[in-house]
Design a protein that fits this description.
flat; 73 residues; mainly alpha; 3 helices
Length: 73
């Protein structure tokens, strides 16, 4: 019986009060990605269903990022 009482005490100690809210640091503010993505898609061919043009845009972007990220040995 003593072991169950100890377990119950541990459970009650680790529970936070219901009224307490965690503050989110400023660097975790949400970024509005969906409007940015749809604007880029519309500007680069998807508005007029030019999939080849959008594919070329995406390839250029990926190549640009891969050059930035890859180590220069």
């Amino acid at each position: 019986m003593e072991t169950t009482e100890k377990k119950e005490e541990k459970k009650t100690e680790s529970v936070e009060p219901a009224g307490k809210k965690e503050e989110v640091p400023e660097f975790f503010e949400p970024i509005p990605l969906l409007p940015m993505i749809t604007a880029a898609q519309n500007q680069n061919g998807l508005r007029h269903k030019e999939y080849q043009r959008y594919q070329m845009y995406c390839s250029r972007k990926l190549k640009k990022y891969s050059v930035c990220v890859s180590p220069s040995w």
